[in-house]
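ok so i was messing around last nite and threw this chain in just to see what happens. nothing serious, just curious
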Amino acid sequence: MALRSSDRLRAAEEVVAQLRGELGAVGVTLPSLRVDAVTATGDAPFPLVELGRCNLDTAMRLVAVLREARR
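result:
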């Protein structure tokens, strides 16, 4: 059984909240992080997460966190 659009939206919102929390825990804030409403409410089977834009400082923090995670 396929998920209804409201269920897909709810699941995507939960994942975005988790991602925001985990990124925040390592000092990274993506101000434009959100669910792509078009794919969440349309017929697409999997909603997309919009990571959005960030400033240079945020991008550098994200690079540092990802490099540290690889170690």
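not much to say yet. The mean pLDDT is 88.
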